[in-house]
Write a structure and sequence with these properties.
single chain, mainly alpha, 0% strand, 76% helix, globular
Length: 455
Amino acid sequence: MDKKLPISAYLIIGLLLFSLFFGGGNLIFPAYLGQLSGTNMWIAVAGFLVTGVGLPLLAIIAIGISGVDNVQPLAARVHPVYGIAYTVLLYLTIGPFFALPRTGTVSYEIGVAPFIGEDNHLIKLLIYTILFFGISLWLSLNPTRIVDRIGKILSPLMLLFIAVIIIMSFVNPLGSQSMPQEGYDSAAFVNGFLQGYNTLDALGGLAFGILIINSVKLYGQKSKKAIFTSVLKSGVIGVGLLALVYIFVAYIGSTSVTALGLADNGAPILSGASKHYMGTLGQILLAFIIIIACLTTSVGLTSACAAYFYKLVPKFSYKTYAIVFTLFSACVANVGLSNLITYSTPVLLFLYPITIVLILLVLADSAFKSRRVVYICTMVSTLLMSFVEGIHGFGISLGAIDNILAKYVPFYDLSMGWITFALFGFIVGCIIASVTAEKPAEETEASLAGETNLK
């Protein structure tokens, strides 16, 4: 029988959920969003909260009610090979491709660059990333509770520091909200929605959601209903805090253009706001917090990615994976923060639609009785448009094809034509399921090891 949780338990799990998603990198995106959206900040941040806050919570709930311990069996409901391919891409995205390098570039841009000038920028970034990822690798190869302890102290400290800046921004604003930049004057919500992809938290929710589920189970919750209820209640606390931070940091960004100028990313905004309100001491404190926060995040991501690939292909050791991922991340980090965000756009435009659809399918699984054909039709249809969006992310036009799709596919001009394709695929899948007999998709998960066993 499931135990009734006290309010304190929901608070503890909620704070764990908050700390799971909240890091130094997450602060730069709402700040930049605020600058771009200006007077339309509230509309833009509403879209940002859907993908930056709502989806991560839904991802964790999907993991919880499905009863699996990682995302691979969920994606395998489409096909076992797809399950591996999707999960590999997910871990590479939140690992050495983007999120891991970003820990180095964000900590450099906020914690180091404001104090050392812009001359010889590339050499300074190279030296910093060697030191940063060297320490990260050492900690990843030498497991110690010091990283967990620092993380538990750091999240409240960062939250307190940001809270002080937020309060000051309302008492004495940097300036008035600026006029929205191009794209945010007429489609602020959609652009905010797409900017939320950059947090990578929906991907992280699928990869690390089991940590929250295990915490709920430790409090005696065993049934799917109890886990769902506990995660939802705790999530209100966790994502509520996350949403408040995003909203108010975006507000700071929206008032910062006059005082700080239009930035290339959110790092100079946070650093400039800290110096404006708290002087050099505040800027130094923010730098220290961000560097340590990014370091602990780097250790966690390195360990998680190395552990997954070691489990997938044990031919190579955990240490080998950790070293390779660290070296690769250090190299990628040297392209700089703005370039890294730009280069990640095509991958995120491809990966996020199929991630959103997978989460929604898992949540609605009982409605179509776990029929595998529904997963296949919906995902294949979504993948078609995800490829198109990924191509657009590279700045490549499809010419006449774009014109035809824009004319007949709703939301296509807003980079959200995948919604129409996903709905079409889902309907087709449900129709096929209604006239055919097939085993439930979840029964095919057991075939994952047999069909794609990597020895």
